[in-house]
Amino acid sequence: MIMMGALTTCKIRPANLGEAVTQMLNWLDLYATDRALVILALICLVLLAFLSRDDRRRLFWPLVIGAALIVNPILYFYVYSHTIYWRLFWLLPDAVLIALASVRILERIPLRLVRIPVFLILCALIMFVGHFTYGDSSFRRNGNPEGVSEATRAVADYLLSQEESPLCLVENSLYMDIRQYDGNIRLVYGRNAVGYITGAGKRVRRIARAMNEKETSYRQVLRLAISRKAGYIVVDKTDPIPKNLRDKYKYEKVRTIYDYIIYHRDFEE
Questions:
Q1: What is the pLDDT of residue 5?
Q2: What angle do CA 195, 196, 201 make, to 5 degrees?
Q3: pLDDT given at position 4
Q4: Bridge partners of residue 236, in order along the sequence
Q5: Cα 18 from Cα 31, distance rounded (Å)
Q6: pLDDT tens-digit profile of 111-138?
Q7: Rg value, the chain, Cα
Q8: DSSP letters spanning 162-202
Q9: Which residues are paired to 187 by β-bridges?
Q10: For the chain, which ranges sit under pLDDT 50?
Q11: What pLDDT is attached to residue 1?
């Protein structure tokens, strides 16, 4: 999907301010899916500034300053966590602005006979520029409750068939889905390696980067796996672990499932 590709790009730490601007715009594009609704919210914000001095003082200027701090490439590059930057957009009350502007407009209409049709027109405007969340295009029967691919499901099922709670070091494209599929699969690192929830140590972050490189540095990866007593390593089959390293660190190739190779070492010896 195009959106998922853009989201993946957004999660790569920018190398310079130019990339920070590009990523920030990608985040804005992903957030503002219903652009018409966002534009309507901006129009309402300007309208509130002209309709009410109190709204201009209490709402307009604080929101302008807040938006300038959020949509700020310098802060994005040096301060904000690039992986959860999009959550800052929750501070922008687009729906509240539209509702408040509608109320302010209705307050200025003295005649009820005029107020009612204006209210209906405003409701229709919001309905047509917005997106009906509960429509058929948004909600349908879910045939895959965990939301994972068949490959992920097959890899996870195999690991669970071998141990009740296996400790694994997995390809970066897998750890998000595997933890969602079954919590009994323990991971050497997960989202903490890219800054989510609790931070990971420098060594773990280094290994996560190594696993994501085009040519994986498996010597480092295997050393970490052994230090954590990870019984299973799952990698992309296009980038297998060299046999000399497998022999040295005693990891045996046990299964190829879809696009992944699974290696195992028994630490009970």
A1: 42
A2: 45
A3: 39
A4: 260
A5: 20
A6: 888 888 888 888 887 777 766 555 555 5
A7: 25
A8: H-SS-EEEE-TTTHHHHHHH-TTSEES-SGGGGTSSSPPPH
A9: 168
A10: 1-9
A11: 33
The DSSP call for residue 215 is S
DSSP annotation of 133: T
* Residues present in the chain in total: 269
Sign of the torsion angle spanned by Cα atoms 94, 100, 102, 104: negative
Angle at alpha carbon of residue 156, lines to 152 and 157, rounded to 5°: 115
pLDDT in tens, 135-172: 555 555 555 666 788 888 899 999 999 999 999 888 87
Specify the amino acid at residue 58. R
Cα 6 to chain centroid, rounded:
10
Q: Nearest CA to 82 among 73, 91, 93?
A: 73
pLDDT of amino acid 3: 39
d(CA 203, CA 207): 6
Q: What is the spatial distance between Cα 250 and Cα 247, in angstroms, rounded to a whole number?
A: 5
